[in-house]
Write a structure and sequence with these properties.
single chain; 498 residues; alpha/beta; Rossmann fold; Dihydrodipicolinate Reductase, domain 2; 2 domains; 6-stranded parallel beta sheet; 16 strands
Length: 498
Amino acid sequence: MSLPTTEPTTGLPASDFVVFGGTGDLALRKLLPALYHREREHQLPEGTRIIGGSRSELDDHGYRLVVREALQTHVAPGDLEAEAVGRLLDRIHHLTLDAETPDDWHLLHGLLKERPDPERVRVFYLAVSPALFGPICERLEQVGVVEPSSRVVMEKPIGTDLDSARRVNDAVGRVFDEAQIFRIDHYLGKESVQNLLVTRFANTFLEPLWSSHWVDHVQITVAETLGVGERGGYYDHAGALRDMVQNHLLQLLCLVAMEPPTYVGRETVRDEKLKVLQALKPMTAEDVDRDTVRGAYGQGVVDGAVVPSYAEDLGHAGSSTETFVALKAEVQNWRWAGVPFYLRTGKRMDRRVSEIVVVFKEPPHAMFPHASGPTTANRLHIQVQPEEGMRLHMTAKEPGPGGIRLRPVSLDLSYATAFSERSPDAYERLIMDTIRGNPTLFMRRDEVEAAWTWVEPILQRWAETPDRRPKTYPAGTSGPTAAAMLLERDGRTWQEHA
Ligand code: BG6
């Protein structure tokens, strides 16, 4: 099996890469730096244009200055090469567009029709508020720029619940076929997340152990030290469950739990992930009360600095939005029945880390009854970020005479040490895949809707029980104590700094 990482970047047709929201945070912080890195590697097809669309009154020259500044801010100084920056800027154009003003859109039509070659791929990247996804697609259709080879790329959030997700998908689906729609979950573009598939399926030793026979439980943590910052307006309507669990954490769970596809193809991986989402045990109201924990950060100390509470970040009290969630899920299928998957994510936690810990069962028989020292269950610790790596925790005999003393040891694989290559940002891979037309690492409509289907009873129950507000946890900690209890109740503990 091979991941499509080595897909050709030469021989691709020239593209018009149109970014709606071209002066927004996502475009300037992530998309344009990612395009720059691909430009530097000479991977952007010859003749490719990058067209920023925004409401700003900018001409091409003005937008190029904005892009240049963004690159200076968001690309590591050692990676900035004047020649590559110049090549990228030569490709850049800007159009002043307002989704509400139909007249503007003829400018886009004019610019795209300047290059009428039928091979040319048009990528429409919607780096804008989801409320504009439908209206922008409609405008694109009205001005006649959507062709069979065109693609549309959507950022999350896709809806705020199942119904609204369906409405967004319907609106976009009226203009683009499902095969033309690329829904980004940037976690799928992370190197270490793709490596999870390789670790599982390009090696043989794990697969026989990867089931309820040998796995006691799985923990998935995505912890951030940042607060909501300037994004309070969006975040307060979303919360950690919608912002992180419905997409990133469930996608990680899928990659851990899925069956091996026969090969890595456009639909096969997504088919297997969908089966996992569909096998998640639906939560009843009692399950939600028992198996979910909500928190919101209070004041505290992060990285040595005193930081404000969530309410202070928002500028008002009274919000019942969670900035932390921990929950226990179960995948009801032959492989995983009875194995808890504990998920947690939060802002303003004690460290930034995304990791998966697979905790194996204790040995079935105590062979060393007179040994001293701890016996601990084997754990495979897969660190997604910040440092990518993998650690297998084992028990070894402490060297020396006079009986057997056991000591925990670990086999460590650090990617930074093992590989000298620069690890590209998730968006570099994903952007190139939109140009290539490879949807493997994008979320299909049925996946998004299956994830909402599972999350929705939790949202509903939380809405019905407003008296159970999120518990405050001090910023700079590992979340509310109730999150620790969630595992302690089952005789387990979170693997901190595993
Ligand atoms: C985004 C969320 O999808 O992911 C943010 O909206 C979050 O709230 C971010 O901060 C985390 O991404 P990463 O790549 O920094 O782990």
